[in-house]
Amino acid sequence: MSLQRRQQEAQRAAKQPCPSVKTFLRRTYKKVFLKEKRVGAESIFTLWQRVFAN
């Protein structure tokens, strides 16, 4: 069982690296933007979009 768990964890780690983190951060910043609906939040959101576009 421990070996299977290790393999599963390794697979998760292999699947996860950059794209999932990017999508997660995009979702969270979209939520923040939708909640606040402020000019400051909008500028932060666009800034993060520029960062993730690169």
Describe this structure in words.
With 54 residues, the chain is mainly α. It has one domain. It has 3 helices and no strands. It has helices at 2-15, 17-36, 39-53. Helix 2 (17-36) packs antiparallel against helix 3 (39-53). The protein is elongated. The termini are far apart. This is Macaca fascicularis brain cDNA clone: QorA-13290, similar to human guanylate cyclase 1, soluble, alpha 3 (GUCY1A3), mRNA, RefSeq: NM_000856.1. It comes from Macaca fascicularis.
Explain the layout of strands and helices.
Blueprint: H1 2-15, H2 17-36, H3 39-53
Helix pairs in contact: 2-3
Protein name: Macaca fascicularis brain cDNA clone: QorA-13290, similar to human guanylate cyclase 1, soluble, alpha 3 (GUCY1A3), mRNA, RefSeq: NM_000856.1
Describe the structure using short key phrases.
single chain; mainly alpha; Macaca fascicularis brain cDNA clone: QorA-13290, similar to human guanylate cyclase 1, soluble, alpha 3 (GUCY1A3), mRNA, RefSeq: NM_000856.1
Quick take:
This is Macaca fascicularis brain cDNA clone: QorA-13290, similar to human guanylate cyclase 1, soluble, alpha 3 (GUCY1A3), mRNA, RefSeq: NM_000856.1. With 54 residues, this protein is mostly helical.
